[in-house]
Input
Amino acid sequence: MKNVMILSGAGLSAESGLKTFRDNGGLWEQHDLMEVCSATGFAKNPSKVLDFYDERRAQLKEVVPNKAHEVIAKLKDTYKDNLFVVTQNVDDLLERAGCKEIIHLHGFLPELRCLECENIFNIGYESYKDKSCPKCDSKHIRHNIIMFEEQAPAYNTLHKLLEQTHLFIAIGTSGTVLPVHCYARMCEQSILNGLDIAELRSCFDKAYEENASTAILKISEDIREFLGA
Output
């Protein structure tokens, strides 16, 4: 049986009400991103960065998974090891929709990481301010998010899985952070879904220029036909 990869970006969760970085009114217009999303910014002012991610957790608590999250979860349950679910998103909406074995390329918002023993622990949607590492009791902690100027270890997993992927599907990603146009060319077939995707469409075999929540049923059928199941 062939393998399918669904790689998602901010557009997947935007319909749930999570602010994206690049859209009008998005987080890049409200913050100096190098101050709150870079290793340099964290070294200069850790509390400002940690407060920023506290705000993101509080926002995440108020939203729920949308139709696209739910269908992806069902697809993963159906095709299991033949469907790779990879996301650039740091939210937990896929998990809350019931999706299993998600590869988070850029970290996971509900988690903190201890800077003393490297232990990673989940705080849900709470603030970091009263937290200490449950393993070593250190208060020297940070968000478990990959910042600008840091390496993303999960990229190694992404590249290994791409070598095993026959149908590549990109949902809600601008292609700015990851070269999804190259990933599409690596695979036997490819599907693109998102808004404002004109620059990427020619690199994919099929494109749905619409919201993920409406395109996902078409994509689900495409997967079923491709896998013959």
Notes: The two ends are 10 Å apart (CA to CA). The mean pLDDT is 94. Residues 46-61 form the longest helix (16 residues).
